Amino acid sequence: MNVLVINCGSSSLKFQLINSDSEQVLAKGLCERIGIDGSLTYQPEGGEKVKSDKAMPTHTEAIQFVIDALTDAETGVVKSLSEIGAVGHRVVHGGEKFASSVVITDEVKQAIEDCNDLAPLHNPANLIGINACQKLMPNTPMVAVFDTAFHQTMPEKAYMYGLPYEYYDKYKVRRYGFHGTSHSFVSKRAAELLEKPYDQVKTIVCHLGNGASICAVENGKSVDTSMGLTPLEGLVMGTRSGDIDPAILEFISKKEGLDIAGLMNMLNKKSGVFGLSNNLSSDFRDLEDGANSGNNEARIALEVFAYRVAKYVGSYVAAMNGVDVIAFTAGIGENSGTVRSSVLKYLGYLGISVDEDANKKRGEEIAISTADSKVKVMVIPTNEELAIARETVALV
Q: Where does Mg(2+) bind (predicted)?
């Protein structure tokens, strides 16, 4: 079966067409600037990447251009829509309603919409993508795969906040966690590489990208994760602050005259390593270059990031009373040996020994701990699109 995987943002749409039998990516691409002027980047397997400007007033036109590209007589990879057996949609927030992926119905769409206030930047866009696909492919089954679903196995002690219980009771204010599709994929792959049953392994997955989160996976279940009600909590990230003293908000509000919207914009878009580096960059490559050139703020930003990652890893070792494997993934986790090394230097007490040559590799699936290391450390490239395709096939 060919599965079209859709990851829809407010003004963008990423897609892959995957053959579920061979798990081969037949084509992939990106629609950008939807609602502005629009452009489509498309690359068939083994072919050249082509970018073209196309007017995309709405996501419906974007989906139509994707279909046109996939079925194009010269560069397409299928002859007609009938060769697409299902569509898998990434949905960011499923609240407490969804502990697993589901076939999309009108009731499911309503439940996704009910979570809009929990993910105002993401869920409405995800729904737009679903509706656009249903309009153009009304007879094709569709599946919603939720970022939050994997974390629904967390116990109350992990997901409840120290707030009045009524806020959970009325508004479901609690930790949800994100990157669940990635954490699930990587933790399963780590168990395969260890040649151990998934339900007998304690794994800590470090999904380190511009958005970053860590997850404790005990015997195949998420038992804790660093992101919270929203993706703002947890690690210092590219432009997000991560954990801070809540009273800082009142302090800065009075000093700078910022309202709630201004404070949230600062926390989400002006903080993290970008803010720490005195606005140098949120790109870790720039930060590493800066630190190597003597930029003190860039050095501080990198050290703060690695320190926070190590502290979360240590807390999750305690939460699971041990760990078998630590896996690094996502853009920074897969490609920055410097960041990995900076994190691991805090974890020597676990009996970790690093293979320095292996740690220099970029973007490869590889063990970076030595053979005698008591805890295995791996780099495992994530593949959320393949995970979504697998979930979709299993349901349809």
A: 7, 384
Q: What is the DSSP letter of 146?
A: E
CA distance 145 to 389: 9
> In this predicted structure, what is the pLDDT of residue 121?
74
Residue type for 28, please? Answer: K
Joined tokens for residue 170:
């009325």
Amino acid identity, residue 258?
A: L
Q: Say if residue 207 carries a ligand binding annotation.
A: yes
- Among 147, 259, 289, 357, which one carries the catalytic annotation? 147
Q: In what order do the strands lie in the sheet with 2-8?
A: 50-53, 39-44, 24-32, 13-19, 2-8, 84-91, 142-146, 102-103
- Residue intervals in the chain for CATH 3.30.420.40: 2-146, 196-379
Tell me if 54 is assigned to a ligand binding site: no
CA distances from residue 349 to 302, 320, 346 in whole angstroms, order as listed: 22, 16, 8
Q: Is 131 annotated as a binding residue?
A: no
The two beta strands, 50-53 and 366-367, are: unpaired
What does the pLDDT look like over 67-109, one tens digit per residue?
Answer: 999 999 888 999 988 899 999 999 999 999 999 999 999 999 9
* 167 pLDDT more than 80: yes
Query: Is 147 tagged catalytic?
Result: yes
Q: Give the integer Cα–Cα distance in Å for 91 and 70.
A: 23
Q: How far apart are CA 319 and CA 325, in angstroms?
A: 14
- Helices 123-136/59-70 angle, 10° precision: 50
195 belongs to an annotated ligand binding site:
no
**Residue 354: helix, strand or coil by DSSP?**
strand
Is residue 11 pLDDT above 80, yes or no?
no
- Identify the pLDDT of residue 10: 67
CATH topology of domain 196-379: Nucleotidyltransferase; domain 5 (3.30.420)
Instruction: Report, as an integer, the average pLDDT of 205-222.
Output: 96
Q: Consult the annotation and say whether 332 binds a ligand.
A: yes
CA distance readout (Å), 94 to 5, 274, 387: 18, 30, 17
> CATH code for 2-146?
3.30.420.40
Residue 193 token pair: 């590489």
